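User: two proteins, same treatment. go.

Assistant:
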Amino acid sequence: MDNSGLNSPDLQKFLEVEKQKAMFQEMISKLTSQCWDKCITGTPGSKFSSSEATCLSNCAQRYLDVTQLIVKKFHSMQ
């Protein structure tokens, strides 16, 4: 069996893109879960209250800030 295709640059690039997509989806899932649990304390209505919307926005922004900081730290360590 010819394994030369397994190490092709195109395949490696494809795998890297898919890995990044999976990491992004996992991050969004964690962000949604954590911010929802923190900000939505009751049964949600047809729309968020202003305090819930503000909390969700702030929570998401802090989560993204911390994630960026961690990524930068790991890149600097390499």
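Protein 2:
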Amino acid sequence: MSTDVKLLIDNQFVASRTQEWRDIVNPATQDVLARVPFATADEVDNAIAAAQRAFATWRHTPVAARMRLMLRFQALVRANIPRLAAILTAEQGKTLADAEGDIVRGLEVVEHACSVGTLQMGEFVENVASGVDTYTLRQPLGVCAGICPFNFPAMIPLWMFPMAIVCGNTFVLKPSEQDPMTAMALAELAIEAGFPEGVLNIVHGGKDVVDALCTHPRIQAISFVGSTAVGTHVYNLGSQHGKRVQSMMGAKNHAVVLPDANKAHALDALVGAGFGAAGQRCMATSVAVLVGEARQWLPDIVERARRLKVNAGTEPGTDVGPVISKAAKARILGLIESGTTEGATLELDGRDVQVPGYAQGNFVGPTVFSGVKADMQIYTQEIFGPVLLVMQADTLDEAIAIVNANPFGNGVGIFTQSGAAARKFQSEIDVGQVGINIPIPVPVPFFSFTGSRGSKLGDLGPYGKQAVQFYTQTKTVTARWFDDATTSEVNTTINLK
């Protein structure tokens, strides 16, 4: 018997009165785990109103108290990792080990939020003019919102609301309607940690709820992670309504492999980054560019991919779990078919993978294409599945040109033992996040996520120092104080004396 997912408004888990519901389905079994409501317009308004009421007092909460709240929250999340991972795997499909990694990477951002006392400091200069001091304050914006994708149901919410809230804002979160139960479990821990009423609120739904968050006059800023189509819509609509918007979107991440690379390390990294999480990562390595003699390593890539175990995420030893839905599987299979039609060579075909005991699961096995050209659909579109494309280049310059010609700019990697080649690559490559002998170069939280070009709209990333800039506004104060002995005269110029 499935249950109904609630809304979170003013620290109360509220049953929605909507007439529109969606089943939350286990991707490995098709079992219905719960129903999620598509919140009504009034329910979204109520959540935003709760956040607005809470902001009036939360903004004045001492920074030390906000930090202690995050310390309690991070301790509770860490203590509940196994339980959270089980929920996450059931509704999203990734392996239990990967689910725990999902949580831990988000938890690192919460830990960094605990140091907001130093991150939110302003600047001060004494005597910018005679007796005049100038200083800046970093103050919260108000009610902020987050719109999350399905592929990281713990990490992405933890990128968003802890940084916003610790900066003094209040928050309305919209998890993916495909797997919202992990976010609701995190909300339970937030309340247990002592989050005041209205500081964190959660609504569920589709486009209508997204549009309501983008247009509501009380929402000051929106953080989005997801597809390029939706991210562009959110950025445009939110910006038109005066919101700050950061939009992290699609990708086509390349890994350039030079022939002097450590072969075993490079191949293991390629296969792990290409097929982990069934390829459903915006930072997945989806294209390998083999340079020079490294092109001879294609059979080794195929063999490593062939050995990966496809199974339900709860089964021991699983490397590749199911994709999120039947619709996602159908789309991936359609793109694989287009690759064969357009002339790429299918080196490893994962379309007919069989998983005993899970006949209804949304499984696609590791798939490898060679002979890929830049105009093929498998290259121009983000497949978001366990499909690795292999391209070839004669030189490093040619490989760099291939990567820079692609419109996306989320992440890229190079595998080499040459410092000179690595330095040339990091200098000339036009991609926001570069890995050197690292396949998925997601920065640690005290840096910032820095995707670029077609992978990002907005100039600030979702965590690190850039997140503090995004979730605060700078106020500059210029002050002069007088004592009774100070002489004064009328000054009609703009100069301070």
